[in-house]
Amino acid sequence: MHTNEDLRMRGIIPAIVVIGIGVLLLLRNMDIAFVQDLWRYWPGILIAVGLARLVDAHHQQAQVTGGILVGVGAILLANTLGFLHLTWNDAWPLVLIGAGIVMLYTRLVPPRQAAQRVGGDIEGSLNENAIFGGVSRKLTTEDFRGGQVSAMFGGVEIDLRRANMRGDSASIDVSAIFGGVEFKIPSNWIVISQMTAVFGGVDNKCVQPDADMPGVKRLYVAGSATFGGIEFKN
Fold this sequence. Notes:
By secondary structure, the protein is α/β, with parallel strands linked by helices. It has helices spanning about 5-10, 10-30, 35-40, 45-55, 60-80, 90, 95-110, 110-115; strands at about 125-130, 135-140, 145-150, 155-160, 170-175, 180-185, 190-200, 200-205, 215-225, 230-234.
C-alpha cells in the first residue's frame, strides 16, 4: 500500500520538470542558452518518467509501462538527435510490436505481486489491462483492497460505487498510455491522488467528503498518464 510519503515522492518528477523548464526559459531570456536547440531533448522526459515507474513499480504491469516509456523515449531521442531517421510511415509497426510484447508478458507472467497483496482474493482487487480495446468492470465486494489498472491505446471503466472497504484505505496503481481510465467512486471515499501527467491529464471530479465523517475511507492512487487521461468521479 502506498503511504503518504510514497505519494509525495512520486510528485517530485513533475516538480523537477517545471523547475527545469523555468531554468531553460530564464537562460534564454539572459541570452545564455538557446532553448530551441535544447527542446530536441524533450524525449528525456519520457525516459525519466519510465525509469521512475520501474523503480517505484509495485506491480508487474507497472514495470511493463516503465519499460515502454523508456523504450519509446530512447527511440524518439535517438531520432531527434539524428542517430535514427524514422518517420511515422516507417515506425508505426513498432506500436504493434510493443503491444504484442505487452500482451505476451501479461499472459505468460502471472501477477504474483497483486495476488500476494490482496491475499489471493481476486474479487476484492483490480488487475485490469486494456490494449487496443476496452475493459469495463463493476465491483460489489465488501473488502476492496486496490490493485492495478492500465490502458494502452484503449479504455478502462471501473465502477466502485457499490464496493466497500473493511480497512481504512486501499491503493491503486494506474497507467494510461495513449488511452483513458475512468473511475466511479463511492461518495464516502476520499481520493488521494499523486499522479504524474506527461502530455496527458488527470481530472478528479469527486465531491470529497469531510475527513472527520464516520465511515470515510481513503483511496490512494499513484501512477502516470502519458498521452492519455485518467478521471475520477462520484
